[in-house]
Amino acid sequence: MNYKKLHFLISIFAALALTVSSVSAQQPDVKNNRIGTAAASELLIPVGSRAMAMAGATIATTTGVNAIHWNPAGLGHMDASAEGMFSTMSYIADITTNYGAIALNFGGFGKLAFSVKALDFGDIPLTTTDDPEGFAGRTFSPTFINVGLTYARQFTDAIAAGVNFKIISESMQRVAGNGFAVDVGVQYHGVAGFDGVNLGVAIKNFGPRVNFDGTGLLRQAQATDGRRPVQYYASEAGSFELPSSVEIGLAYENKINDQLSWNVAGAYENNNLALDGYKVGGEVSYNVGMSLALAGRAGIEANDKAADDADIFGPSFGFGLTYMSPGVDITIDYAYRSVDYFNNNNMFSIRLGF
Question: How many domains, in total, are found in the chain?
Fold first, then answer.
């Protein structure tokens, strides 16, 4: 890296630091009293082992089907004719997060992708006022599903943009909430002509408030006026905002030789209903011959917090293996993230490129 490029990188990081300071100054209550009041908080659960191993700092470098959750603009940099991906993660409190996506390359028109995220809560014992201990043996399982449709296009060799439309569906027993959200992202590879310097910006989870309704909100009561008998009345549930955020990320990629390359990335995430995040991650890749590539990754995320706020997620790391053949590329990734109070997160992903 020459001194001119180093000076440019320092200037960019300084500008990002000033931006972060400005945003923080506008939010004197770092504690964020609205934490925990969002609907569809499953939108924040990460998918894709590569990015999670790097603490989600890959907003400027993520590409292909891996990019849908983190920055939809990265889908525009997909070189393959088609890609498919599946990931599964053991989340907290015995919750499993499953995710699947397929993407197609339509050449000059752009890229289209379809994705589904579903949470598996298992069977939860059903307790009622008549059976508070659950001796009847009845169970229930909430259903949380997000379905996404993504469009992205590469406008130049360096610039790509994308948009992701998501339908949100949550149901528990006889109460359900539905809504939709939009992600918009931009990536700029080779910022100002400097090879390896990448910039990414994403606005995520913006949409209307989610309303909940269903027969589970009916309650038996007797009207205080008139002579009506006891009957069912509907309780009006409140509406809740989506956990929207704005992310900006910067990364530097360097290829040492034909076998060895590395990259380092950082990102700042400003959340409306969660703690703001500062993410840093890195990756080292090594090509073993012409058909096999290995990668090692690590990352950490720090959050703004007050004395009584809890940031339960710690450092993460992982690895990846890619087998390249004339017909299909197969990538298997693993990520581990430490968690306080709960079992640590483990995520496995497999990606196919055609």
Answer: 1
CATH assignment at residue 304: 2.40.160.40
3-state secondary structure of 125: strand
Q: Is the pTM of this model over 0.85?
A: yes
Cβ-based neighbours of 5, under 8 Å, separated by 6 or more = 194, 197
pLDDT number for residue 149: 98
Core vs surface per residue 52-87: b (16+ CB within 10 A) or e: bbbbbbbbbbbbbbbbbbbbbbbbbbbebebbbbeb
Q: Are 34 and 150 in contact (CB under 8 A)?
A: no
How high is the pLDDT of residue 24? 44
Query: How far is 40 from 55, CA to CA, in rounded Å?
Result: 21
Domain containing 212 equals: 3-353
In this structure, are residues 209 and 241 in contact, taking their beta carbons and an 8 Å threshold?
Answer: yes
In angstroms, rounded to a whole number, what is the distance separating the alpha carbons of residues 212 and 177? 4
Distance between CA 121 and CA 246 in Å, rounded? 29
What single DSSP character describes residue 273?
S
Beta bridge partners, 162, equal: 152, 185
CB atoms within 10 A of CB 159: 17
